[in-house]
Amino acid sequence: MKHLFLVILAVLAGASLFTWYSLGGTGEARPLLSWQTGICPDRYRQVELFREWMILNRHTRPDGQPLFDIRIEAAGNQSTMIQAVSGMAGDLIDFVPVESFAPMGVLEDITDFTRANKMDPEHNYPGSAALLCHGGQQYAYPRNLAVFSLYQNLDTFQKYGVEPPPEEWSPEEFERIGVEFMAKANAGLDRRRIFFCAYTVMVPQLARSRGIDIFNETLTAAELVRPELVEALELQKSWVKDLHLMPDAAERADESAESVIGDPGLSQFIHGRYAMMPCGRYIHMTLRDLGHEIRTANSLFPQYEFRNAKLYSSNTAIYRGSRYKEEAKLFLRFLAEQRYNEFLIATADGLPPNPGLLENNPDFLTPKKYPWEGATHGNELKWAKNCAYPDAVSPWYKGKYNPVHGALERYMNDLASAKEALRLEQDRVNRDIRSYAMSHCAEEYREACARQEKIDQGKAAGRKIPAEWVTNSFLKAYYSAVGMLE
Question: What is the Cα 71 distance to its own chain's centre?
Answer without folding.
Answer: 24
